[in-house]
Protein: Phosphopentomutase
Amino acid sequence: MAKFLVLVIDSFGVGTMDDVPQVRPQDIGANTCAHILQAKPDLRLPVLEKLGIINALGFSANVMQPNAEANFGTADLQHEGGDTFMGHQEILGTKPKTPLRIPFSEVIDAVEQALFAADYQVERIGGTLQYLLVNQHVAIGDNLEADLGQVFNITANLSEISFEQVKNIGRIVRDSVSVDRVIAFGGLMASSQQILDAVEEKLGIYIGINAPKSGAYDKGFQVVHMGYGVDSQVQVPEKLHSCQIPTTLIGKVADIVDNPHGVNHINLVDSQTIMDITLDAMKQAGDRFICTNIQETDLSGHAQNVERYADRLMVVDNNLANILEVMKPEDCLVVMADHGNDPTIGHSKHTREKVPLLVYRPGVTGVQIGHRATLSDVGATVCDFFHAPAPQNGTSFLSLLKAQE
Structure:
């Protein structure tokens, strides 16, 4: 009875991809892992160190050292840019497509009319560029943290409006547009003026709310990610279901990946809670695939907060020790990321970085997984592990993970 756990430390990249100078020059020099460790020279993450994070990084950035017994590799992002939504679809076996890019200004009329039809109070705010203010406490506009034009944000003051209402607004927006993702979220704010004070324009085309500046992430944060155009039938959860292997999704991944036949722990943000649920899932009887996302690291990157990022890494590391203790000889663990979000680079967006692949399987040591061309190699490995049909994309590295005689 085996467990396969994929733990995604959201945004924990290990250095810019080779194509960054051509496609994302603003990310030149980004290295989320290295710059956090360099800013915290005495920080030691003993479990991640044991699993090979310094091996994957390629150099010692602080007191932590490589481990000769670690099983490690790295992987490029096959999707364009650096996106959590598409990153997780890629991890679970989807071959990425070129995303639709469109500013909110091109769909503002359709969204406004749909909200009016649902009896919401809607105001247009701004001059040449405008965003929508709904019921005085919810702003709708461009996402300024992801790649511009691919995501629309719905930012709410949850002190004044319920998250259920915010999700209802999100569904209306989702039904009105074709961008890859609509994100409906909010936090407990002293005043909705905080949202209005955080409005920013980019490139003369995009307008939205600077989410970290608004304070939405600071207290009582809740979020739902609404995707578009992803075929769940080609992904790992569906392939495993065909072999009666259940899938458990925990945290942000449960919000962005379709898993109708499994267990989904959605709307979780607190890293300790997420790790507690993950540990419980590892202890359950029977075969199971578990995928967990740690979102607070990504939020710390957006807030350009090195201290908070390091603190969340320590929470993850402490809890990884508990997970290793309960792993059985037949189990497998992959610790990885979905992109970067370097809090020191000078902007608050995701950074296009390769990600670590740290693999733990009892009895297997010193395996070099190599540099993989796509995050989908992880999903392909999961399916191979459970003898399930392969997902749409990716190449399994399971054959490398043979126990030493």
